[in-house]
Every structure is written in structure tokens, then in C-alpha cells.
Design goal:
mainly alpha
């Protein structure tokens, strides 16, 4: 009889012939046809945001850009851009620049110190949540209510003005101060600039690792050396970027300035409003050109903030 030798069906080791459960096709599963990806329903959650951005940001911006290069009859012209070089328009831009820079620098420094005291200072535990709650409310408190609040506080018959004159014999208006001036508007802007800075810079302060301070102390470094060589080099992009965001926020503010000063202070948003809706200065296309200039300036400020923010994210990663 011939010898029969049994051999495995697989020429390799039996281990390699084992079949995993994942390799067995599921008879109840119908494979999706190639090239047809299922619809991601999560996009429906952000659809309202895109609709809002399209209707209230992109389309109005495109309308302003087109109107800035048209005359009253709808013909193409560059006279509107040339009108930006008129003395009253340049003066409005310059005053807006000064107010925005003053409020962003002062608000940035004061807000940064306030956030540092709340986050890293050894203060009672109830102060930080109270400060953050107040900052969230105050950063959005603007327009007519804010203007009325400052008029009732620091106006000629305001509460603080009367108290200083009655009990301390100090008349702030005799020194040249006016709530309707550059100083008064800057002081009013600080009410929402400081809380906004607190909200922006707090996460950066929380990102400072305790190990960095402990390593500095172990190496014999002082508090001044820690902030000079470790903390500030890490924080300066966040601080500068937040100030750029405050600058853009103040440069585009119109309701507070108009309700507080009316037409007595020649800043860009008020002059723009007079060009589009006014009876005397009525040149809508010049107003569109001024709005385009504001969009460019605030866009550059926001772009600088995003660049500095990305640099901060890379350092903290």
C-alpha cells in the first residue's frame, strides 16, 4: 500500500493560517458603494453660523467694497478713495487712531494686571469667579446705556462730579476735563476694554506652568528674573495680540461715541454715519470708502492678533 502523508492545506505554519474574526465578512453588512461618502450631519450644527456670517458680514462687506468704487450713478470711479485724503477725513482717522491706541494700551495694561492679581495673586477664592463674571457682562456693556451711565457719573451734574466738588472741593471741569472730549471718550472706552482684556489674557496666564517657577527658584532666580527671562517672553505675544484686538474693538465702536459726544468729536464712525445718513454731509459712496478703510485697518489688527495667537499656541504646545 502506498504511504499517504498528511500535509496542512496551508504551506506555512499553522499559526499563519488562523483566521481572525475581523477577516470574516459580515453577511448582514452592505458595503457602501465606492465614491459615495455619507453626509456628515454634524455640519448642520454650524450651518446657522455660516448663514449669519454670510448675511451680516460677507454680503455687507462686499456691498461696501463695490460701493466704494462707484459714483452716485453707479459708474466706476476712484474719487471716493481720493476723498479719504481730505483734511476732515484724515483728521477723523487720526483722532480714531489716538483713541483706539490710548484705550487699547491703557486697557491692556490695567486688564493684564487685574487678571494677574486674580489668577496668580494670593487673593480670596471668591474674587476670581466674581471678576470673570463681571468681565463677561461689562465687556458687552456699550452703546447708549454706557454713555448715559458715564454722563450720570462724570458729567457736569454727575454724581462723582458733585461729590468731588462738595466734599473735596475739587472741580474736575475747571482743569479742562470734559466727558465729551478725547479724554472722556477714552475713559468711557476703558469700561469695556479692561474687562475684555481680562477675558483674553486669563487663559495665557493660566498656561504658565508651575514647574517653570519652581525651576527658577531652585536655580536661585528671583521673582524679577522669572518674569523678565521666563514669563514675559512667553506672555508677550498674547499681550500684544490682545492689545491689537482691543484696538480693533475701539476703532469700530460707534454707538457709544455717538450717544456720548454726538457730532462734537470728529471720529471715523461718526463721520461715516454723517456721510451715509446725514442731511448736510450726504455722500454715501464716500461713506462706503471710509467703511472700506475701517475694514482694512481692523482686518490688519485682527490678522496680527491671529499671527501672535498662533505663535503663543506653538510655544505652549
Amino acid at each position: 500500500m502506498p504511504d499517504f502523508v498528511w500535509a496542512p492545506a496551508c504551506p506555512v505554519s499553522p499559526v499563519s493560517c488562523t483566521v481572525s474574526a475581523d477577516s470574516i465578512p459580515n453577511p448582514g453588512r452592505i458595503p457602501a458603494p465606492p465614491g459615495n461618502k455619507p453626509l456628515n450631519l454634524n455640519l448642520l450644527g454650524v450651518l446657522p453660523f455660516f448663514v449669519f456670517a454670510l448675511m451680516f458680514m460677507l454680503l455687507p462687506t462686499a456691498y461696501l467694497m463695490v460701493g466704494a468704487f462707484q459714483d452716485a450713478e453707479g459708474h466706476f470711479t476712484l474719487n471716493n478713495l481720493a476723498g479719504l485724503l481730505e483734511p476732515n477725513v484724515l483728521s477723523a482717522y487720526w483722532i480714531s487712531f489716538k483713541i483706539s491706541i490710548a484705550s487699547s494700551v491703557a486697557g491692556g495694561l490695567l486688564g493684564c494686571l487685574l487678571a494677574w492679581a486674580a489668577v496668580l495673586g494670593k487673593l480670596p477664592g471668591w474674587i476670581r469667579p466674581t471678576l470673570m463674571t463681571f468681565s463677561g457682562v461689562a465687556s458687552n456693556f456699550a452703546g447708549v446705556p454706557l454713555a448715559f451711565a458715564f454722563l450720570a457719573t462724570l458729567g457736569r451734574m454727575g454724581l462723582v462730579t458733585i461729590l468731588l466738588r462738595t466734599y473735596l472741593d475739587i472741580n474736575i471741569y475747571s482743569t479742562g476735563f470734559s466727558i465729551l472730549s478725547f479724554t472722556g471718550l477714552t475713559l468711557t472706552y476703558l469700561y469695556f476694554q479692561i474687562p475684555l482684556m481680562v477675558l483674553i489674557i486669563t487663559p495665557a496666564l493660566e498656561g504658565l506652568k508651575k514647574e517653570w517657577r519652581e525651576a527658577c527658584d531652585c536655580l536661585g532666580g528671583s521673582t524679577l528674573q522669572y518674569w523678565r527671562f521666563i514669563a514675559l517672553p512667553v506672555l508677550w505675544p498674547s499681550i500684544l495680540g490682545a492689545m491689537l484686538l482691543l484696538f480693533a474693538n475701539a476703532f469700530g465702536a460707534v454707538a457709544t461715541a455717538y450717544a456720548l459726544t454726538g457730532s462734537s468729536l470728529n471720529i471715523v464712525p461718526i463721520l461715516l454715519y454723517a456721510q451715509i445718513r446725514g442731511d448736510v454731509l450726504h455722500n454715501p459712496n464716500l461713506g462706503y470708502a471710509m467703511a472700506l478703510g475701517m475694514i482694512v485697518i481692523t482686518g490688519l489688527a485682527n490678522a496680527g492678533y491671529m499671527v501672535l495667537r498662533s505663535k503663543t499656541d506653538r510655544r505652549s504646545a
